[in-house]
Amino acid sequence: MSAPMIVVLMGVSGSGKSTIGTLLAQREGAVFADGDDYHPLANKEKMKAGQPLNDDDREPWLERLNVLLRDWLETGKSGVLACSALKEKYRETLSAHMPAGAVQFVLLEGSKELVASRLALRNHEFMNPGLLESQFKTLEDPDDALHVKNDRTPDEVVTEILTKLTK
Questions:
Q1: Positive or negative CA dihedral for 123, 128, 132, 133?
Q2: In the Cβ-directed half-sphere of 100, how many Cα atoms lie within 13 Å?
Q3: Model pLDDT for residues 142-151, shown as the tens digit of each residue
Q4: Residue partners of 127: CB distance under 8 A and separation at least 6
Q5: Phi/psi of residue 13, nearest 5 degrees
Q6: Mean pLDDT along residues 44-71
Q7: 53: burial class by Cβ within 10 Å (0-12, 13-18, 19+)?
Q8: CA separation (Å) from 97 to 18, 67, 72, 74, 102?
């Protein structure tokens, strides 16, 4: 990423967004943000109780993340955001009021079994592993995102992302 670039690592919970995003940002000297940190308390409580968020729950959260991305762009910072961005309309909200191509989405893919095994090993503040199936059902496969399988070491995945971003 020679010029400032904004990357949104997207995918279901447990797909590796935070792990890969942190490493990608470190390797590129970019800012990293985890979208989960920006959820309002009501959203966190709902997910912790095993209830999937609906579009009304997500809209203010996505708008808050859009402000963050626009700030990065306006200040010339490269940034990496970990955010599920499961639906096309969520991705539209994230990239609203920004020039076309300013945000590059990268879908981290993994089988349900692989992702479920990762979720079983972690202790997340509010993401209930029971919500995984609803996330896979909600995911709208993006046509304009880079697709990267996250079934290797984080270094290998980041190297593939960087190779694809520079093409």
A1: positive
A2: 1
A3: 988 999 999 9
A4: 13, 36, 47, 119
A5: -60, 135
A6: 90
A7: buried
A8: 25, 9, 13, 11, 10
**Residue 47 structure tokens:** 């997910």
pLDDT tens-digit map of 109-144: 988 888 777 776 665 555 555 667 778 888 899 988
CA distance 98 to 69: 9
Beta bridge partners of 167: none
What order of strands is seen across the sheet that includes strand 6-10? 31-34, 79-82, 6-10, 103-109, 146-149
* Two tokens, residue 70: 């626009």
Q: Confidence class of residue 1 from pLDDT cuts 50, 70 and 90?
A: very low
